[in-house]
Please model this.
Amino acid sequence: MEPTAGDEPVRAREALALRVTPRQVVIGLLFASLGFVAVAAAQGADAGGLLETAREDEVVRVLDDLAERQVRLQAEQRALEAARDRLLSGSEEQRLKAAQTRADALGILAGTAPAVGPGLRIRIVDPEGQIEPILMLDAVQELRDAGAEAMQLGPVRVVASTWFAPGIDGLGVSVSGTALAAPYVLLVIGDPDTMATALEIPGGVADRVRTAGGTISVTPDTEVLIRALQPATTPQYARPAPSPSG
Model:
């Protein structure tokens, strides 16, 4: 009998089960997350060199951002370590449930799964065509520092690998190869108050938009739906590291 489309997910799961165990999947995901936390903390420390030439208000802002980021990363590291310890001593059912929960979370972070939650709807109008790609990138970075968990700019899911460049003939903005024209609509999931405050800091994104002749509106929403997905890609060089018990 010819295989049907419905058989393919079942066969894929069966093939995966033959290659790795649930225990290896869970531990691998947790160690990958811990590695990400360590890298993020190291990157935050690199910002210290910028303080030598920054203005006083910029120094205060950078130090506040670094302090908040350090607190978030430390809390996440403690949570991940506690989850790892629970999984190592838990039942098979608990490990499978935790693996699925972690896979769902990583799908949102990687942009391969839709997301919904409280956040902001941001609209940037650029009547004079003066909004440059670097400003859009800074907006994304500012929101990430403020705790944004998922973002969509126009029809494009914004993830770690998203890049920005001038649009066609230098007009508009190209987001990972997708040309966008103003007005730019950015959907963000995270704490609305924290992210809105981050955008309005003196000399920040909102100020720069207005200086460039544009306008920005930031609307909180209890249910922001992000549908755009980032196509899954196969790494060319990276591969999962074996777990210590593997």
